[in-house]
């Protein structure tokens, strides 16, 4: 199959890939995106060295995260508002986001201690705004990024945070400032070159700042079969603990902690905390 070319910029150059899951129809629960009349055919290859999974198909997903994604996934801006309020209202024990916020705040507190006064966060791929809204409530000054201008407007109006419709690579640190934390929550699996996106965070980090990334856990999900949401069509990558660290290293970041968990929603997730490579903690 020709099409997207997902890469981790690995030294092995794909020499250890083996065929894994194959799909001739959307699995149950997957969002039905408009594919321009193309036949639904896609697959995953798994690296036997690092355990990373790469998507392989010829489907055109190039504009997936513009208008089509918002309409297909949320039903437009009104659906985004409803989803935001519904998730924010979940009790902590049922909320993936509550655990995410608690873990990140605990890490930041341990890392910065009393040195942390004005806390600045850049959330890349903020979605409906559940995480940035909760982080603002926790006392952080938040800037959210989304490619769709309608989503950026929703983030400003409904989540109450500063938002820009721009890729992270377009941000000028002299204009937007630098951030104590830069977060990628279920974002990096959606892009062909996550190393490049992650590397764009480096010039935006304040001294001692850190990067937080959440990605789907391939090993845990694969044990339950090909129908898991971790392997839905929009995921170009599904990670292992090793490949999450490899991605960070390729972006000039050193892993401080890599953890795996099963979230209240049932998702199998890996989360990693990274700092600039060679920077003393």
Please, could you describe this protein's structure?
The chain has helices at residues 67-74, 77-88, 96-112, 130-137, 149-159, 173-176, 194-199, 218-222, 241-250; strands at residues 17-23, 42-47, 53-57, 120-124, 141-145, 162-164, 179-185, 205-216, 237-238, 253-262, 268-276. By secondary structure, the protein is an alpha/beta fold. The chain has one domain (17-276): Rossmann fold (3-Layer(aba) Sandwich). The longest helix is centred in the middle third of the chain and has 17 residues, at 96-112. The mean pLDDT is 92.
* DSSP strand count: 11
What percentage of amino acids are in beta strands? 25-35%
Query: How many strands, what sense, and barrel or not for the largest sheet?
Result: 7 strands, mixed
CATH topology descriptor: Rossmann fold
Structural class: alpha/beta
- The oligomerization state is single chain
Q: What would CATH call the homologous superfamily?
A: Vaccinia Virus protein VP39
Could you estimate the helical fraction of the residues in percent?
25-40%
Q: What is the overall number of helices?
A: 9
The number of domains is 1
Query: What is the averaged pLDDT score?
Result: 92
CATH architectural type: 3-Layer(aba) Sandwich
CATH structural class: Alpha Beta
For the structure shown, list the relevant keywords.
single chain; 281 residues; alpha/beta; Rossmann fold; seven-stranded mixed β-sheet; 9 helices; 29% helix; globular
């Amino acid at each position: 199959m020709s099409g997207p070319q997902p890469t981790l910029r690995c030294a092995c150059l794909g020499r250890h890939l083996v065929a894994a899951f194959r799909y001739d129809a959307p699995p149950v629960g997957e969002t039905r995106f408009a594919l321009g009349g193309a036949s639904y055919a896609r697959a995953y290859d798994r690296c036997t060295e690092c355990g990373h999974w790469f998507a392989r198909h010829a489907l055109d997903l190039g504009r997936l995260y513009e208008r089509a994604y918002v309409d297909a996934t949320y039903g437009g801006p009104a659906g985004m508002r409803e989803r935001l309020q519904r998730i924010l209202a979940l009790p902590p024990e049922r909320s993936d986001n509550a655990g995410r916020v608690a873990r990140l705040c605990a890490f930041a507190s341990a890392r910065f201690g009393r040195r942390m006064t004005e806390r600045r966060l850049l959330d890349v791929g903020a979605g409906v705004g559940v995480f940035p809204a909760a982080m603002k409530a926790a006392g952080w000054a938040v800037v959210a990024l989304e490619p769709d201008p309608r989503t950026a407007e929703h983030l400003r109006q409904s989540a109450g945070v500063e938002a820009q419709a721009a890729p992270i690579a377009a941000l000028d640190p002299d204009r937007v400032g630098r951030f104590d934390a830069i977060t990628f929550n279920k974002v990096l699996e959606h892009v062909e070159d996550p190393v490049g996106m992650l590397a764009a965070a480096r010039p935006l980090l304040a001294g001692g700042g850190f990067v937080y990334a959440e990605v789907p856990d391939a090993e845990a999900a694969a044990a339950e079969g090909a129908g898991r949401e971790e392997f839905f069509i929009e995921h170009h990558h599904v990670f292992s603990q090793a490949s999450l660290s490899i991605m960070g290293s390729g972006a000039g970041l050193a892993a401080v902690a890599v953890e795996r968990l099963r979230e209240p929603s049932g998702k199998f997730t890996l989360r990693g905390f990274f700092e600039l490579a060679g920077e003393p903690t």
